[in-house]
Structures
1.
Amino acid sequence: MKYLYLHGLGQNADSWNKVTSATEVSENSACLDLAEMIKGKVATYSALYSAFSEMCNAENEDIILCGLSLGSVLALNYAIDYPQKVKALVLIAAQYKMPARLLKLQNALFHFMPQSMFQQTGFGKLDFISLCSTMAELDFSDSLNQISCPALVVCGEKDKANKKASIELADILKCSQFKEISETGHEVNLESPEKLASLLREFYISI
């Protein structure tokens, strides 16, 4: 079984280091670099998802996908399209229908931020704006019934923007559970890596 970790927009593959080192499956896990997947291409959601799908399809074993924010959207999308490949899902700060107004607000803010604030993620400023713009119309509401694998839906207690959708998602998915991590905001993997790792260990054992 292969464990694949997908970071959020504004993070990079190293954002998972403390989590993966504590889950005791690090020898068969990979923290993916989303920016590297579409390096040299126009940064659209469809281009990123296409590259991610190709990589997953090339795996010769069942995969467990663990994604945060943008990473959870990719994981959810792939599990809908290729349910036979996904053994289990961990969806953190997940949205199944993109909050278009929030994305537009984020994009407006991105325009005023200096390029230097984006450098450590591997994505440039225009990449951020392009990705958010091309995600605005995503809506998986009518396809969630295609997912039958076990799913753990996680959200930080202070992540007000994503908690409602995460609870709804856990309620809709056939075999899922919702866990809230106390005193934690959006970036659960960075803010509370030990608490997240504990939830992951329990979930991995259960499947």
2.
Amino acid sequence: MMKKLAALCFSTTLTLGCTAHSANHLLGGDVDEKGCISSAGYHWSELKQQCVQPFDIADLHFTDPEDSTLAIYVILAQDQGKAEVFSAHSTPNLILDAVKGGYTAKDKSLSIIKTTQGWELKKRPTR
């Protein structure tokens, strides 16, 4: 096993900077409690019950109103009864319930409303 790891490190030294000292910290070695590799963009989805890359499978995509350099991704349940929000400001992911015209959080802190121009994200200001 050690010979295989050393060979892997040697063959990837130029591209990943792997050394014998960092062999235990290879790219993708950061698995969370659900088995998702966050360095590869994977996060646990309660709706899908699996690790997903939200940016790859999101049904809706918004610019974060708190920081325009960040994005908010939304995955809709297959029956469209719930929506799961992936945001840098919300851990764990926020689950929204379907309401007339869109989705809203139980505490009303976030809503996604379908308008004639498309989907709109509405965030209640924090006090």
3.
Amino acid sequence: MDVRPKVSRIEVVVNIASGSVSTQAPDEMRALLSELGLTANVRAPEGGDLTRALREAVDAAPDLLVILAGDGTARTAAELAGPDGPLIAPLPGGTMNMLPHAVYGEVPWQDALRATLETGRERTIGGGRIDGRDFLVAAILGSPALWAPAREAVREGKLTLAARRAQRAWRRAFSGRLRYALDGGPRGKAEALAFLCPLASKAMSGDEQALEAAVIDPKTIMEAARIGLNALVSDWRIDASVQTQHCRTAGVWAAGRIPAVLDGEPARLASAAKVEWRPKVARILAPPAVEGAA
């Protein structure tokens, strides 16, 4: 949708406890907006009550909701805003920044915001939904997701806890496989599954109406390590232990609860989960050049 919307009422939510957000970020945000002739209500909640701040920002019915936080907060904002709510601008303020990098490229949040406010166009984005939770970039199910809690502990500086979680993840790796069916097809077994949205998929254009499903099934630790190496030097999807196809729905089953990572954030799913493509999750504001490249 090539629309240059009018943006006058702006709400901003800044997570100063996030991975790459400084305590000066709220003032920097106000200064940048003032330079562009705009004002905003900037919320920087303390104590981690981000969901309440996001809900209040959405309820204020702004023209634009700017998020400077991690992927999980951006995903929550998209869920709260929905396809009929305010435009959102998910800026890179976390550790991985999967969604902002997919939308704006790997640029500082100041550059992303400036370009968005000067040349931004409205764009509806789709995503996946699993167990009532949306993801806009990627969902990983199975043993690779077991490492997410260890990563979170490292990010929080809790190295002893990170070591314990890493040991637990290593012990549980290859201990239980997933069963799955894509688009109602035959059931298969795999060590892990990944579902990539068009924003993140290298094999899909940004306007395709489906997910890219990757069936990840290494048989040994060495094969798993090879997938990791491919992820570092090229594309993990090309590994012989990975098979991909497009799908709109999927069923996933396991003997126990399914470990997952949704847009970089750890989650725990039930033993049976349904994954589905949603064509309209939220509306974002993005520069047209970046939009065409997504």
4.
Amino acid sequence: MSSIEQLQTLAQYILPEEIFTYFDIVNIEESANVLHIYLDEQPDIPQEYQTLSLESKGFYPEAEICDFPLRDKKVILHVRRRRWLNTSTGGSVSREWKLTAEGTRYTEGFATFLKGLLGFIPDYGPLS
């Protein structure tokens, strides 16, 4: 098993389950006590758009989402969603994701944990 496969196996125990249904880990880096995990949406055309004539047009700009800290390291997920062009209409098509808690940049699980622990979701400090 290659080192990237080992990291992916480990990440499956750490990251939200829905991440692995629709995203691939493309890189993992550590810098200044922050673990950066880079995720790209898988290239499969969404089921709901299978009947349309779509052409891949790359990715939307990367979004950063904070997840549970690991071993005193902040974890940031760098997520890139795919974008398709509907060649019949000229419009863009993409999946809608509910990866973050409403109004935050935290995964839903992490936001729920913080709210239970602190009584609120912080928008500043070491957890933001």
